[in-house]
Amino acid sequence: MGKVMHREGVWIGALAVELMLLPTLLYCLSYRGCGPGIGQPAGRPRELLADFSFSWLRFTTVAALMAGPLWRAAAFVQRHRTGLVVGSCAGLFGAQISYHVFPDPVIQWLYQYWPQGQPAPLSPELQRLFQEVLQDIGVPAGHSYEAFTTFTFQPVSAGFPRLPAGAVVGIPASFLGGSLTNTDHPVVVHGQRVNWQSPAGARLRDALTLSRDAQKFALAKEVVYLESSAAALQALPAPACLAGTWALGVGAKHALGLYGGPMNIRAAFNLVAAVVGFVAYAFSTDSLTHALEAWLDRRTASLSAAYARGGVEFYEKVLSGNVALRSLLGTHGAKLYTPSGNIVPRHWFRIKHLPFTTRRDSVLQMWRATLNSGRS
């Protein structure tokens, strides 16, 4: 197999040289002349031959210099293809998990709430709320968590609580109540300032006002996600699909005997394999995300009836807020949100997250089941 792949690299270099020399040959035949009767009348065959020899030598030298790096690169790829695939898979995994390994500077820098040019400290009220959630879940004392105030409407999180860097959780400033939704406080969403006096603005203000149970559900969902270390699982599909596509592609080309055939057939096969690999990656990633989101909702709602009730309220408020944003943003809002409040998928062949209506209905069923079991 190594000889076959090496021969393929040599063919690439030879093909590059031929393509570079072809314009030179056509130029000489059509314009400069290679003898009497071709482009020039007879009379100076010696000068023409000398001129052609000089041009041919010059262009051959340039073409060889240009084809050298291409041939060396092709040979290097063929010689170290396994190491390159392993390195690419490791790079994909590391890129997706890096901000979870070092969450503190990255997440706070992206999501920190700066009300008056200074980072807003976490209020004692929100700190007590977060500690209460940690106690309800039963987080071990050795796990490290740090909370901060974020400008987003929903909590954000990253990290691994078991690692020395710990995990960070961003608590929305809107959890404080009317401080963010005050009519004198400017709030910009998608480049447009929110008019709190309008009907849509009033609906958005109501959607941002959550009860204590709804706030605890939103925070507990993030803590359950961090405790499960699901971030490492979500980083696996990309390198797994890359390695699988490469291995299956090489095996299929050997089985079909494509290494001994024309190069254009192998190129077409590689293109088809890449498309199939991307489809497999998209399907596996979206399926994993759907399963993980459904599990997070069920796990959080199972903490108590209060958490289940808070989960229903939380998703109802999320849907109501999205409907308000759809009205506030006009035509741009219609491209972002559906009339029911779900997020419009950006890709026609992918649904990256579960619809909020589906998540609300799932938590609602758990709440009803909890109430029925309590009555019985």
UniProtKB/TrEMBL annotation:
GO terms for cellular component: membrane. The chain crosses the membrane at residues 12-32, 52-71, 83-102. The keyword Cytoplasm does not apply. InterPro entries: TMEM177. Keywords: Membrane, Transmembrane, Transmembrane helix. It comes from the Eukaryota. Plays a role in the early steps of cytochrome c oxidase subunit II (MT-CO2/COX2) maturation and is required for the stabilization of COX20 and the newly synthesized MT-CO2/COX2 protein. Belongs to the TMEM177 family. This is Transmembrane protein 177. It comes from Panthera pardus.
